[in-house]
Automatic annotation (TrEMBL), chains A, B, C:
Gene: uxaC
GO BP of this protein: D-galacturonate catabolic process; D-glucuronate catabolic process
Family to which the UniProt record says this protein belongs: Belongs to the metallo-dependent hydrolases superfamily. Uronate isomerase family.
Name of this chain's protein: Uronate isomerase
Pfam families attached to this UniProt entry: UxaC
Amino acid sequence: MSPLLHPDRLFPADPSARAVARRLYGEVEALPIVSPHGHTDPRWYARNAPFPDPAKLFVVPDHYVFRMLYSQGIPLEKLGVPRSDGGETEQDGRAIWRLFAANYHLFRGTPTRLWLDHAFATLFGLGERLCAENADVTYDLIAGKLEQDAFRPRALFERFNIEVIATTESPLDDLAAHAEIRDSGWSGRVVTAYRPDPVVDPEFEGFSANLARFGELTGEDTFSWSGYLEAHRRRRAFFKTYGATSTDHGHPTAATFDLPREEAQALFRRVTGNAPVSAGDAELFRGQMLTEMARMSLEDGLVMQIHPGAVRNHNGQVFARYGRDKGADIPSPTEYVRALKPLLDRFGNAPELTLILFTLDETTYARELAPLAGHYPALRLGPAWWFHDSPEGMKRFRAMTTETAGFYNTVGFNDDTRAFPSIPARHDVARRIDCGFLAELVTEHRLDEDEAVEVARDLAYGLAKKAYRL
Amino acid sequence: MSPLLHPDRLFPADPSARAVARRLYGEVEALPIVSPHGHTDPRWYARNAPFPDPAKLFVVPDHYVFRMLYSQGIPLEKLGVPRSDGGETEQDGRAIWRLFAANYHLFRGTPTRLWLDHAFATLFGLGERLCAENADVTYDLIAGKLEQDAFRPRALFERFNIEVIATTESPLDDLAAHAEIRDSGWSGRVVTAYRPDPVVDPEFEGFSANLARFGELTGEDTFSWSGYLEAHRRRRAFFKTYGATSTDHGHPTAATFDLPREEAQALFRRVTGNAPVSAGDAELFRGQMLTEMARMSLEDGLVMQIHPGAVRNHNGQVFARYGRDKGADIPSPTEYVRALKPLLDRFGNAPELTLILFTLDETTYARELAPLAGHYPALRLGPAWWFHDSPEGMKRFRAMTTETAGFYNTVGFNDDTRAFPSIPARHDVARRIDCGFLAELVTEHRLDEDEAVEVARDLAYGLAKKAYRL
Amino acid sequence: MSPLLHPDRLFPADPSARAVARRLYGEVEALPIVSPHGHTDPRWYARNAPFPDPAKLFVVPDHYVFRMLYSQGIPLEKLGVPRSDGGETEQDGRAIWRLFAANYHLFRGTPTRLWLDHAFATLFGLGERLCAENADVTYDLIAGKLEQDAFRPRALFERFNIEVIATTESPLDDLAAHAEIRDSGWSGRVVTAYRPDPVVDPEFEGFSANLARFGELTGEDTFSWSGYLEAHRRRRAFFKTYGATSTDHGHPTAATFDLPREEAQALFRRVTGNAPVSAGDAELFRGQMLTEMARMSLEDGLVMQIHPGAVRNHNGQVFARYGRDKGADIPSPTEYVRALKPLLDRFGNAPELTLILFTLDETTYARELAPLAGHYPALRLGPAWWFHDSPEGMKRFRAMTTETAGFYNTVGFNDDTRAFPSIPARHDVARRIDCGFLAELVTEHRLDEDEAVEVARDLAYGLAKKAYRL
């Protein structure tokens, strides 16, 4: 065991609680990974090409990493982040790695540090903390391993003990990479998920062109309300042939609406017309589409996920210079009780529907989300998300939802990542924190240990399979 | 001691803190129960009839229980919850009990589980966890005991060591059950509390008919502003003759207003007129009435309680099919600082007034409620309420209010329940959690143990008596 | 060591975490105090007169103390708080002290208790808890010491091991006390800070007269937009000659604006004109001025601090009778993500700017502030503020900000106090809590102990010096 990975890491400090946590973790440590929601690139599994150098694997694409470095005044160019205008950025992986290593102390106390140390230790055998002094040695060590076949995507997938992983695609995606995977005969189970934001959000870049392409792909008249809805039905069916069991919706708010057909049709005409779409209409349309998607889910069985509450691209200068997803998405207060009412009034009592709610606003855990999920048959709570997918964030999630919603209205863990080497680390953190939480309940005699074992296995494995129908 | 009830349950895991908690709990464990706010049925104490079968005692009337079962897809009909249209529901207590027992795992980690296990163990001597396999045996055991005299309401009241319990009645209630109790010569102290929502909230079902009845009961012209206020004064005085020491107000928000007399009168005419009442006027009238009630409290000494922030009957289908109080009330964000200002500007500096604030929005504990209660002489903080009346909820309440408001601006515990057998369990949980909280302060040398003993006794007993003038 | 001060106070209860906390604290205990933000009176250091009696040192001027006593019904007059109308108040220090001592139990569980006990024990050698019985003895003891030279401000300053302390002055202050200090040849380092609210907030009492005085002091036409801005530049430069390294802004909200020059000029004319200033214009002007101040900070290097979110003078009666700062300022919900965007769009990417954010709304720690500070180079997070400057408040600050913002986007501790004798206690509490937090990370193997030592020293000393450029 590398000194970077203490066997008791993340367990409660109290010796009796720690002993229980160890036993519970022993029951779940080796369970396969079920990853029902994430953003890895299906081409990795399709083509099985080696990953590039250490910097391009760990620094350049990981917004958790470069946002922290940027916040301390390090220009993104020096970290190799590509510029929208094609301007010059650092291309030398070793130079980027040195800068990263010299600033590794910035990640103290963050989950990024835990994920990185886990990957460094378990995949590359690092025995000491990354720092300026060992930057070159570690770079060479990792770069060398990345060239080996055992470090290609499929080998890692198997080594990670992934039972199934979901990627996320737009309805406009042809799922060619998924077809390649299927046709390759490889046994790894990679499924897609239906993320229709580009054709559901009138404020999405290129919405109108997206609709046109949506029509070409489906053969439907996607500029008529009924043809547009039918196109969704067809495309969802197509996604199901590539294993999809879920849809995902990344809206600014959790607003839903349930308009009469005529009003919905008129709204559709407005958002697809030539006049600029008002902010109110855009919100109304996104909200109406959540209810439409719920209706389709009752027909075709796809599980719905709502991921609301991010103010995207908050930093105007960064957006202009480097584009989307550069660490400048910031959470904001999110309301659920009134927002979800129209959809819930229509479909909330249907046990056949599964609607999984996420939040970036932790104040809603105990106040809104747990009371809603502890009542409506259709609702489940997704795990602690994004900035909150961390030891303290996960503890707060359990502490603030369990007493009202219980464990069985939650759905296990999502890694939600495009950082492939971090997947085992993320699941491991979740398992350790959940076992620690359960161990504290056992130690305080709020739960018996035999029950805690059952719950631990459900949180680590069973609930995700069941909720996502995998 | 039943294995369901470990003597150290809910105490901190750390051995030194646990040892202190045990000592503190030893000082308060046997104190009588003061229950200044709750919803038990006074007819139980008046008539002293046996409780019906186990399902009708523990499942059918308890919205904490059936909301969780419902959230997992179990129809309320199968749980015996009556339908508004008189439609068929399960009547067989044993069938309901089996369904409940088979799903007992859903309550893992919830306070419901703690309350139920406490009642099962202390009242009925259950020695093992409820489950599908022992459903019949436990049903028979409990049903058998419920037939015994020792399990009738008065016997249980005495066994529970209840010094005083408050029920809650509408001004339209004739307090006949309270009269029966008084006339019976039984020594149990049961007092009423004045809950005027049906004649204060213009949006309450039957508001106008309620006002008419209010007039009949008081002999006042309740359709004139002065007569209406006088009717309140009379009815409050009548409630006081049945032991009332408090009023209670369950409003959607904490809004208060302090209108000039002419404006208040004009508002009263609008909300009692023939035209539909606007949402704004309804809110204004409820808020004005809180200030009027405070004024009357200064005259007659009744303590005020405000319970704001629930969105009632959120689930339209459940409300239509089963009516109110079916687990579909959901908390929402609640603001206090601006909302209470009009009332506080008028009466907040009066030490003779006691106004007890509750919340379903925990974000207000440290931000608004503790700063307000730590300044205004009239304000006190009610305990963690409803969904937050749980181990973690109570810990958050103390952790987030004590540093700014201290212990002496809080009022001890409320069980706030209609689930009679859960009352000792609820007080026991509160006493254990408070002792644990104090034990941690002692262990971290923030408080001396002799002080902690005093505080523990105040939190368990003294503060409730003092704040509620019981 | 006085029994009032256990050497392990505030450390985690768990023995292994406590052992680590002790070691970490051993590394920082003796570090000098850097106090970059506070409200002590520079005349104390200038004149070095003895402090008056115990009541006038500990009770009369400390709103934490008298707000709690007032909340329990003790009139402010009895505590010697001066009335605006010059009406009678208690003048006898001993009488005030007795009342305070008899109610010392009200402070159980509050930080005030910790601060007071620390000062009583370390400065005056008290060996037992203050109470009614020892009120006279302690009064005499403290009063006696206050007459000694060793208890004058400069002697205490040196005894407290203060390396540098900042006071806060209005641009209208002539900094005469600071000049006296400098001219006295005393080696203590006391610097000023630029707090321009009286000439930046159109709703500040006497705004127009303040502007006129601002013009006299600077020789600029402060009723023209360009002259007004130039006056700020000159006055900031003047403050810098007295050591200022920072500005401070106490606004009702965090709103910022970045208007085109013409609009800003027109706005300035409106807020300085004869017509009453609308609430909207006042907010707009304060927000515009934050952006102007950021622009000047980029020119002259002063660090900016924003302290938003207090509803000042909530209690109308108390304000009328006793004036400002009488414990009646109440926090309210505060939004940052949209509010700061205009300023951040303009200057947020400048690593040369340091903008330190504070909050009274803890819900923003994890949701808004940590994500913002973990991205924008210009942003840093100030420590837990005001009501949250307490053991639990500090723990919540670290637990909710570290995982997203890390330690290095925070700025160490502020005591933010006018209670001079509490300064060592406040820094000691912060050091202990931070060491405890780090110790838990070490014990849970999330951080190595050698790193924790480095971080502990940075939190106690290094970060404040660096962030405030001291």
